[in-house]
Structures are given as structure tokens and as C-alpha cells.
């Protein structure tokens, strides 16, 4: 499997075990229930938009907000912005226009929360709860960010029900996916110190898996030192 630099990287059995442990930790395993609004977090993964539509069709929220501008990794894929493309995808899937709101400016998860709250308020919606839909390995950090920025609202998280191996196959780059898992976990651990998120308890085995993978070169998404 080629890594971000186009070189081959064989993933060992232990590395897969560590990655699967972190993958599972990233997911909040929330029991889904009806919420005031759904919020789909923009990214490179159009599956987030598709899953948001699936949850809407299940009656879990009456209105959705797609939030996200552009980043260096999404500009080529979504030139008009992540949220705009997500909205277009939802409309193609048959969601009525009045059920889809767009927040096209956010550049990080904190702004996803702040700006989505503003868009909902402008639409006359003051939610008691939000169902945040994101990539599978971003559930925990998204939850921690929304609870920090928007503490008065109940936050439920969801992502596509897919395993690590299938997700990596879909991306086409297992090494890069594990890099992203490792980088996301580092942010779960480090961002509370910077005031970006609420603290999350990280089990010792998950922290040990993180260190092994980071030390083994799964480090392209780590925070700069």
C-alpha cells in the first residue's frame, strides 16, 4: 500500500492491531436518537454527506447544516468548498432544499461549531441537541470540540458504520489512514491544554498504541513541534 509519499509500506500485524484499537477509541459509540439538527462536518470524505442524508431519512433531525470551507487537501476535490459540495450531494439524493443549510467558512472544528450555531440561529433554530456527523476517526475530537465551544447543547456523534480495513481500502492508502488516526489521537490528547477541547480520558493501551505507531513512522499528520 503506497504512503503519502508514494512509497510502499507494509503494515505489520501489530501495527494493524494498534490502529484498530485507536480506530475503536475514536468512535464514541453513541446511541443515536432524534436531535434538533444534524451537522455534517466538511472534509475530503463525501461519505459524511451521504451518511448525514441517511440519518435525516431515518427521522433523526428535521434540518441539517453542512459546514466547511476549503483546505489544501480538499480544494482540488471540492473547489466550491466542502459544505457547498456536500449540499449539492444531499440535493442530488433527494433532500428538500429547505432542509439543508450551508456554512461555507469554517476552517477547523471549533469554527464548525461556532459558525453552525450562527447559521441555525439565523434560521430561527436554537437547538437543544445536535447530531454531529463526521469521519469515523474524528468522532471523539469532534465531540470534545463541540462540548467545549457549545456546552449548553447535547452532542451526539455519528459516522459511517465501516471498519478500519474497509475504510482504508476505500481511501486507497492504509499508511495515510493510520497516519490520520495517530494525528487525530494526538489532538485529543493535546488540544485540551490549548483550550480547544474538553479533556478525554485516554486508556493506557490506547496511549501505548499511539506511541508505537508514531515511533514507527506513522507521523505525517502529527502536530508540528
Describe this structure in words.
- There is one protein chain.
- The chain is α/β, with parallel strands linked by helices and 225 residues long.
- It is 44% helix and 10% strand.
- It has eight helices and five strands.
- It has helices at residues 13-26, 47-57, 82-92, 109-122, 139-149, 164-171, 174-190, 204-215; strands spanning 37-41, 64-67, 100-103, 129-133, 154-158.
- The protein has a five-stranded parallel β-sheet with strand order 3-2-1-4-5, with helices on both faces.
- α2 packs across α3 (82-92), α4 packs across α5 and α6 crosses α7.
- Residues 49-155 form the DUF218 domain.
- InterPro entries: Cell_Envelope_Assoc, DUF218, Rossmann-like_a/b/a_fold.
- Pfam families: DUF218 (PF02698).
List keywords for this structure.
alpha/beta, 5-stranded parallel beta sheet, globular
Give the overall shape, derived from the CA principal axes. Answer: globular
The poorly predicted ranges are 1-7
What's the number of extended β-strand segments? Answer: 5
Query: From the alpha-carbon coordinates, what is the Rg to the nearest angstrom?
Result: 17 Å
In whole angstroms, the N-to-C terminal distance is 28 Å
The arrangement of helices and strands along the chain is: HEHEHEHEHEHHH
Strand-residue proportion? 5-15%
How are the strands of the largest sheet arranged? 3-2-1-4-5
| Structural class label | alpha/beta
Count the DSSP helices.
8
What value does the average pLDDT take?
94
Q: Tell me about the largest β-sheet.
A: 5 strands, parallel
Helix content: 40-55%
Amino acid at each position: 500500500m503506497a504512503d503519502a509519499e508514494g512509497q510502499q509500506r507494509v503494515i505489520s500485524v501489530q501495527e494493524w492491531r494498534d490502529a484498530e484499537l485507536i480506530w475503536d477509541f475514536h468512535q464514541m459509540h453513541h446511541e443515536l436518537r432524534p436531535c434538533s439538527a444534524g451537522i455534517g462536518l466538511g472534509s475530503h470524505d463525501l461519505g459524511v454527506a451521504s451518511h448525514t442524508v441517511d440519518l435525516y431519512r431515518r427521522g433523526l433531525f428535521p434540518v441539517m447544516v453542512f459546514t466547511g470551507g476549503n483546505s489544501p487537501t480538499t480544494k482540488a476535490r471540492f473547489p466550491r468548498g466542502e459544505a457547498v459540495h456536500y449540499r449539492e450531494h444531499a440535493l442530488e439524493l433527494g433532500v428538500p432544499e429547505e432542509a439543508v443549510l450551508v456554512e461555507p467558512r469554517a476552517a477547523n472544528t471549533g469554527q464548525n461549531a461556532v459558525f453552525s450555531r450562527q447559521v441555525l440561529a439565523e434560521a430561527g433554530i436554537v437547538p437543544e441537541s445536535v447530531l454531529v456527523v463526521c469521519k469515523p476517526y474524528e468522532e471523539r475530537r469532534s465531540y470534545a470540540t463541540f462540548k467545549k465551544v457549545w456546552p449548553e447543547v447535547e452532542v451526539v456523534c455519528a459516522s459511517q458504520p465501516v471498519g478500519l480495513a474497509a475504510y482504508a481500502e476505500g481511501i486507497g492508502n492504509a499508511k495515510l489512514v493510520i497516519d490520520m488516526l495517530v494525528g487525530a489521537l494526538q489532538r485529543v490528547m493535546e488540544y485540551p491544554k490549548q483550550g480547544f477541547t474538553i479533556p478525554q480520558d485516554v486508556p493506557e493501551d490506547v496511549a501505548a498504541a499511539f506511541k508505537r505507531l508514531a515511533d514507527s513512522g506513522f507521523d505525517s499528520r502529527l502536530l508540528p513541534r
